[in-house]
Design a protein that fits this description.
Blueprint lengths: L8 H20 L6 H19 L3 E3 L4 E3 L1 H19 L2 H6 L4 H19 L4 H19 L6 H32 L4 H14 L6 H19 L8 H7 L2 H25 L4 H27 L4 H30 L5 H32 L10 H4 L1 H15 L5 H16 L3 H27 L12 H19 L2 H8 L8
Antiparallel strand pairs: 1-2
């Protein structure tokens, strides 16, 4: 059968556009490099249109899936990449080397994430994951004259290689038992063996392989105890890349985890096993992430630990799926997948918006210290107001999108039953999160500034901050279209 390349139009186009960015930088631009940001944004906008018109189906056998789940996550990837690119103007204008490669690598990384969301079997998923992470390794160390940036890239590379090896070993164990890399085929083989009563001989191998797969992908989500890279990498990497890592990398890891857990291990006999594993990871991430964030004096490290905690909240929805299917046996994935999808959408605007404000502040004052935000409301009322919106949304304060996101996540876990303790941990740690988010707001509004110097923000970055703040408020006040969009992600799983 001839592969249907029309399903790959967005990925192929964005890949070629990344090559075009390299060529434009190499042959046509000498000094004025700022145009590359606008060229990249144009390519991303066209890719977004192609995502909306691409047909659904499968091609290259079952290696590539175009469905509602892939559609939703590709929108998240493109939107987060656009925010990262739009936030990079001043960083790139200060670099005197490899400016075109910066934008090209971001686009190629996004291509890898898009393939990851559409992966229907283990080999294509692993290749897509490597395409994603290799670009991120380079981008984390992009400020090569900075010791912190070089350290961030090296730590990310070493720990990323270890996590990839663990993931690959887990996949090989699953292949060894089932004889297939296709998620649907793995599911059918395990179910058949269960029905025939012959699975017990390989049960330990299945569980061990599943544990290693979850561990490998948990690194991408930066959940405890696989979070050790995040604070140092987030602090040392260029801030737009830190912002990109905090959302897009998490979304990519989540997409891969859902594909594998539901596609291959969505069987009653395994649901409790991986449900408990994910519940432990989620609770540790919420507790350790929030408590550690309280102790930080650097805003990038604080947001790094905050993102670890946010990953824990996201995983609550994944836990709810395992319980909902096992005990209710109806509409197995609706609440879990849709609540996770809606959460990652709202989290994207709030978290990347907060990083955009941090970028504007750092570019002007050259500092990432929280204490230096003192009196920001007097020096730049717009930046202080938008930062407050983003932080309150991350804390889950109504009527912002973060409140509804947490509500849907916790409601899905309560509806599933059996994990009320996890919801209580989420609620208690949200109070801790409110404390350190509110401390920044207090610093901006109730502490006198050391200087009255106004903050100068480039127009593109200002527009990015404004759009992110608008979406954070809009989705919180009028969520229905976005909830419907998130529910589209359940279509492939029979929700």
């Amino acid at each position: 059968m001839i592969p249907d390349f029309s399903m790959l139009m967005p990925e192929l186009f964005l890949f070629l556009w990344a090559i075009l960015v390299f060529l434009i930088d190499l042959f046509f631009l000498k000094e004025k490099k700022d145009v590359l940001a606008y060229v990249s944004l144009l390519g991303l906008a066209i890719t977004l249109v192609l995502i909306c018109i691409v047909p659904e189906g499968r091609t290259f056998g079952t290696s590539f899936i175009s469905d509602g789940f892939a559609f939703f996550f590709k929108i998240v990837f493109i939107a987060s990449t656009m925010i990262a690119v739009a936030s990079s103007g001043q960083l790139i204008s200060r670099l005197r080397y490899n400016r075109g490669e910066y934008y090209g690598l971001i686009l190629l990384t996004t291509v890898g994430m898009m393939f990851l969301a559409s992966a229907g079997e283990m080999i294509s998923l692993y290749v897509a994951l490597e395409l994603t992470t290799i670009g991120l390794f380079i981008l984390a160390a992009y400020r090569k004259n900075s010791v912190e940036s070089a350290e961030a890239g090296l730590k990310y590379l070493i720990l990323g290689a270890i996590s990839s090896a663990i993931l690959l070993f887990g996949m090989s164990m699953t292949y060894g038992v089932t004889g297939s890399t296709d998620f649907a085929r793995i599911h059918d083989v395990i179910q058949m063996k269960l029905n025939q009563g012959i699975i017990k001989a390989a049960w330990d191998v299945h569980v061990l392989g599943l544990m290693m797969i979850i561990a490998g992908l948990s690194f991408k989500l930066a959940v405890v105890p696989f979070h050790m890279w995040a604070p140092d990498v987030y602090q040392g990497a260029p801030t737009p890349i830190t912002s990109f890592l905090s959302v897009a990398s998490k979304a990519a890891g989540l997409a891969a985890l859902v594909r594998i857990l539901i596609g291959a291990f969505g069987i009653d006999a395994f649901m409790d096993d991986w449900g408990i594993m994910i519940a432990v990871l989620a609770s540790l991430a919420m507790i350790v992430g929030n408590i550690s964030a309280v102790l930080q004096s650097n805003i990038k490290r604080m947001l790094a630990y905050s993102s670890i905690a946010q990953a824990g909240y996201i995983l609550v929805g994944l836990v709810a799926m395992s319980r909902y299917y096992s005990f209710n046996n109806t509409s197995p994935w609706d609440l879990g997948v849709s609540s996770m999808s809606f959460y990652i959408l709202g989290y994207m605007f709030a978290n990347m918006g907060a990083f955009a404000v941090a970028i504007a502040f750092s570019n002007h004052y050259g500092s990432d210290k929280i204490r230096d935000y003192a009196g920001l409301a007097k020096k730049s009322p717009v930046l202080a107001a938008t930062m407050s919106i983003f932080l309150l949304s991350l804390a889950g304060i109504p009527p912002l999108v973060g409140f509804l996101a947490k509500y849907y996540i916790f409601a899905s876990a309560i509806s599933a039953g059996g994990y009320l303790w996890l919801v209580l941990i989420g609620l208690l740690t949200s109070v801790i999160a409110l404390f350190y988010y509110a401390s920044i707001i207090r610093q901006m509004y109730f502490v006198e500034p050391a200087t009255d110097e106004k903050v100068s923000v480039p127009p593109l970055l200002y527009a990015t901050i404004g759009i992110a703040a608008f979406c954070t408020i809009l989705i919180g006040c009028y969520p229905q279209p976005f909830v419907t969009l998130a529910e589209k992600a359940t279509s492939v799983f029979g929700g």
